[in-house]
Give the backbone structure.
Amino acid sequence: MTLADMQNLMQVKERWTHATMNQGTIAQLQAQAGFYAAVCNSVNNLIAHDLHHVEMVIDEETGE
């Protein structure tokens, strides 16, 4: 994962936390959607090799 992706994830996580603690439901849902979008974007940026290792770990943990 790139440094830019990690920094972006931290920023959107902080916005989501702030919204959860200080704002209304709509702002919380928007911040949550922004976080999920950032996670999806980061995963899409993973190179195939890294993604393969992530899948292997998940398979090991889930017994598949």
